[in-house]
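Forum > Structural Biology > Help requests

Title: Can anyone predict the 3D structure of Superoxide dismutase?

Hi all, first post here. I have the sequence for Superoxide dismutase but no way to get a structure on my laptop. I'd be grateful if someone could post the structure tokens.
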Amino acid sequence: MKIAAILLALPMAALASACATGSSGTAPASDAAAPVAHAKLLAADGSPRGDATVTQATDGLHVLVRAQGLTPGMHAVHIHGTGTCTPPDFTSAGGHWNPTGHKHGKDNPAGMHMGDMPNMIAGADGSGEMEYVIPGGTISGGATPLLDGDGAALVIHAQADDNKTDPAGNAGGRVACGALST
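Reply #1:
Sure, ran it for you. Structure tokens for Superoxide dismutase below:
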């Protein structure tokens, strides 16, 4: 009986230990005091297209985007430098967030904007999710604040970003936009 109890307790202890150690993924460690910005993503007609959360962590800004209602395939996702999303084309969000003055795209030898992020894949049902860490970014304050005087917005584009063409990666029109706020 004692052996059976021990054999039953070992897997349960291992499971509890695994749950308590946290994740080794890109999500930041839980910190109730960490600054967070949110955005509700909307299409030009005002219909919901998802949400975005940006959380300050020691290694930069952790971005989580959940989208729906997109055409299946690859979509560019960027943070734009103005926190305004006026339909129908969302050009009010301005260009990519670029406080360091670099060129566009991870494949561009001259830079990449801080607002450049990986493409997101929307599945056959039109939904997609992506996580990304923007090294060195801050929600507010410091040399590279996301929410400066004119704010910032998260934008999903109609097509994939080619990761090199300046200034916007040939990503097509803006199909969803959400102004970030705390």
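The helical segments are 2-20. The two ends are 56 Å apart (CA to CA).
Shout if anything looks off.
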